[in-house]
Design goal:
- By secondary structure, this protein is mostly helical.
- The chain folds into two domains: about 210 residues, HUPs (Rossmann fold), CATH 3.40.50.620; about 90 residues, Tyrosyl-Transfer RNA Synthetase (Orthogonal Bundle).
- Helices cover about 50% and strands about 10% of the residues.
- The protein has a three-stranded parallel β-sheet with strand order 1-2-3.
- Strand 6 and strand 7 form a beta hairpin.
- It is globular, with a radius of gyration of 21 Å.
- Bound molecules: tryptophanyl-5'AMP.
- The site of tryptophanyl-5'AMP has 24 residues, from strand 1, helix 1 and helix 6.
């Protein structure tokens, strides 16, 4: 039985990195596995920021899931904070994790750099909440961008550790947790910021020139692509010494479905200006139907709330059963 689980934080706008790194894979995988569960992970959204309009943002992310092709016949969508089991399992898993392993998390190191004493405990604990999300549903596959790989690996380590402890103690509870596998699109990995190809495209960036949001207008897209940082020589190839062009080709390939080699051939001898013009039009063409669908879905918020409430109810038995098993194995309660 293959079950996928993944999620996105409702901290701001969705961008092409979220789409190409995560949602695109979800849409493909939902047809290949037995069950798919996609979550709007709102408890993760408050670890570092105090996002404004959080409730509305949650609905927006859910609407984008549907607009991008998540199919309710095949997949369930819900909101993390609507299922209390996530926070409860997080506490339990906290007691099976060490400060050392959380201190090694790259994302934590980056986000807390220079301000270790003032970041929230939630930011430090964030990977455990993510492990709880994944392990509650016995997910076998976790499609994410490369930046989340280390967190999925931590979930694996915790699952193995927990299984070992409770299999050995003779409590009869063998292999409570399923060991999850990160699924990363080999072609995409990490979409980089348009204004700095050495950093990832990020929705919480201070500059809108960092990303293409899924709801950017054609003019905004043209402007952002035109102003995207380029490498020193006018050569359109994906190569290690050309991070900016590699990133733009990656995006071109992701939105057009064409492979990078054939794009390189087509643009041999052409200049950056021509390439960027075509790339912007390709992104606009790609986003247009999704933006139209998003508007329709988001216009009916009551329906969206109902979909998320139904989703939460339909995943409840899985989450409750797992939490029950974990508590029984440990001996919590009477
Ligand atoms: P988040 O909200 O930062 O990002 C959502 C998804 O988008 C991917 N992503 C990218 N992929 C390629 N290039 C980029 N520039 C880029 N930026 C973001 C992320 O890898 C992610 O797949 N902690 C997670 C959310 C989460 C989760 C989970 C995921 C919470 N619980 C359980 C999977 C399973 C996060 O903050 O993703």
């Amino acid at each position: 039985m293959r079950r996928i689980f993944s999620g996105i934080k409702p901290t701001g706008l969705l961008h092409l990195g979220n789409y190409l790194g995560a949602i695109k894979q979800w849409v493909e995988l939902q047809n290949k596995v037995d069950e798919s569960i996609f979550c709007v992970v709102d408890l993760h959204a408050i670890t570092a920021l105090r996002p404004e309009n959080l409730s509305e943002n949650i609905l927006k992310i859910a609407a984008w899931y549907l607009a991008c092709g998540i199919d309710l016949e095949k997949s369930k969508i819900f909101v993390q904070s609507m299922r209390p089991e996530h926070a409860e399992l997080t506490w339990i898993l906290n007691c099976f994790s060490t400060m050392g392993e959380l201190n090694r998390m790259t994302q934590y190191k980056e986000k807390s750099e220079g301000k270790k004493d003032s970041v929230s405990v939630g930011l430090f604990d964030y990977p455990i909440l993510m492990a709880a999300d994944i392990l509650l549903y016995s997910a076998t596959d976790v499609p994410v961008g490369e930046d989340q790989k280390q967190h999925v690996e931590l979930a694996r380590d915790l699952a193995i550790r927990f299984n070992n402890i409770y299999a050995k103690s003779g409590s009869g509870s063998r292999d409570i947790f399923t060991i999850p596998e990160p699924i990363i699109d080999a072609g995409v990995r990490r979409i980089k910021a348009l204004d700095n190809p050495l950093k990832k495209m990020e929705k919480s960036s201070a500059s809108a020139l960092n990303y293409i949001a899924l709801d950017d207008s054609p003019d905004e897209i043209r402007k952002k692509i035109q102003r995207a940082v380029t490498d020193s020589s006018d050569e359109i190839v994906a190569r290690e010494d050309k991070p900016a062009m590699t990133n733009l080709l990656n995006i071109f390939s992701g939105v057009s479905g064409r492979d990078i080699k054939s794009l390189e051939l087509d643009y041999r001898g052409k200049n950056y200006g021509e390439f960027k013009k075509d790339l912007a039009e390709e992104i606009i063409l790609f986003l247009k139907p999704k933006q139209k669908k998003f508007k329709e879905i988001f216009a009916d918020k009551e329906k969206l709330r109902q979909i998320l409430t139904d989703g939460s109810e339909s995943v409840a038995p899985i989450a409750k059963e797992m939490l029950g098993k974990v508590k029984k194995a440990i001996g919590l309660g009477i």
